[in-house]
Structure formats: structure tokens, C-alpha cells
Amino acid sequence: MKNTLILFLLFPLLVFSQSDFEKGESFFREEKYEQAQSFFQSFFSSNPSNLKTIEYLGDIAAHYKSWDKAIGYYKKLKQLKPSEANYYYKYGGALGLKAREVNKFKALGMISEIKESFEKAIILNPKHIEARWALVMLYLKLPAIIGGSESKAVQYSNELLKLSPVDGYLSKGQIDEHFGKYLLAEEQYKKAIAAGSVKKGSQMLVNLYKNKMNQPEKASKIKI
Q1: What beta strand segments (E) does 33-138 contain?
Q2: Is 208:185 a contact under the CB 8 Å cutoff?
Q3: Per-residue confidence (pLDDT) for residue 3, from 0 to 100
């Protein structure tokens, strides 16, 4: 009876302490990010080490392309839980997206940390698919003179193939397409579709036919 009374007296306090977070989650799931942000910030003010709240705030900042804020939140997550791979992945992603918007000289100084963040995510979680995808695209997009590398992109694509055939074929298709090997890219996208990536693989194949191979008639026959 005594324990029941204590729980009854504490219940309103427990509800109050959780309500802002729960409301924030509800709005976040509904993609009402401004409302979600308000509740998460309120909860964060009294719970500054709550990992999920910080992650939500980082994700909302990233949604609004407030890269410095997102980077700050993800950096805090790394500090609070340095063993979590996804925090490094999100941190590297936010850095990479910021690098696209700053001047080239400043972006050059960020490349090393971006790579290291994705690599750290893979070290912490050897099955991290998204970090490998990020490295494939990073090595493709960077000019060779500042670290771009076809062989590195292929390396991570091969790793993807072992973890997930769909992601392996799609990433190989992206590599072939990037280097103008359109027939090989076509083959890889078809393999991805056969492996189960009907929607994404078909969309990549349609884009290849329309934008690179000038074969709109083939594109029109593909149902997405």
C-alpha cells in the first residue's frame, strides 16, 4: 500500500517530465518539425544529456539545412556515446553537406574529417551500409587531385555487395554510370532490380536511359 501511494504521488511528476519528449516525437513522426523542435528544446533544457533528444534536434537542424547546428548536436552525441556508429555517420554527413555550401578552400579542409567520420562508423559497426554508401559517393565526387579515387569507391562497393546485394549492385551501377560505362551500369541496375530493389533500381535505370543513354523509349517501358 505504501509503495502504491508513493507511485501515485510521483505519477504526475513522471508524466510531466516525459510529456515534452513524447509530444516532440509525435510531431516529428508527423513531419511537423517546428512544433517538434519546440518540445524537444524544452525537454533538452532539463535533460541536456538525453541522447535521443539531441539526435532529434540534430535531425531537425539537418532537415532545415542548419548545418552548424546539426554538426553541434551530432558532435555532442559523439562525446556522450563515442561507441555509437550512427552518430559518426550523421556527423560526417552534416559536415559533408556543409562542405558543399562553403567556399572550395574551406571545403578542402573538411574532407579529411568527413572521411574519418564515415570510416569510424564502419569500425564501430562493420555492417554499416549507409557509411559505405557515403564513402562510395564521396570518392566518386571528389577530383583525384584532392582525394577522389575510383579504386576506393569500388572497394566500398564490393563491401556493400557482401553485406547487401541490392546496395552492392546499385553502388556499382553508380560507379559505372559516373565513368560513362553506361552498358555496365544498365546491367548492374537490372541485377539490383532482380535482387529486390524494384523501385530504386528501376528509377536509376529510368534516369540512366533518359539522361545518359538517350533512350526514352526504354525508360517509358519501365514501371516504377
Answers
A1: none
A2: yes
A3: 55
